[in-house]
Write the C-alpha cells for this entry.
Amino acid sequence: MEPWIAGPLAGLLATAVMTILEVPAWRRRGFAGILDWEQNQTMAARLLGRPAEELVAGGLCLHFSHGVLAGLVFALGLAASPVPLPSPAAGAAFGIVLWALTLAVHARVTGRRIRGDSVRMAAALVSLGSHLVYGIALGVLVLLL
C-alpha cells in the first residue's frame, strides 16, 4: 500500500489502540490525567467558544486527527529515508518525539504547568507510555499495510 494511504490508516488504528489504553487514566483523573486529551479539549473549547467539559467528542476528533496526520508524516518519512529502518523501532522513536512535543506545548496550550503538579506529572508518564505504544503500533501497522 502506498505510504500516503498506509500512514493515515495506520495512524487511525494506532490512535485507537492508544486511546483505549488511556481510558483508565481518564476515568481516574479526568482530562488532567492525560496531557494530550487535556490539550485537545482546550483547543476544541477555544475553537468552538464552549466549555471544554462539553466537548468530549470535539477533543477526541482532534486527538484522532493528530494521530492520522502523524501517521502520514511517519509513513512518508520512512519511505523517504535513504537507510532502511525497522519500522517498529522507528515507530517507538517517533512516539517518543511526539511525547516530547506534547510536553513542550502543554503549558502554552492549556495554561497549566506540568512541573509541580502531581496529577500532571503522573499524566506525563501515562502520556509517555501511550505515545510509545502509539509509535510501535504505527510502525507495525505501516509494515503490515
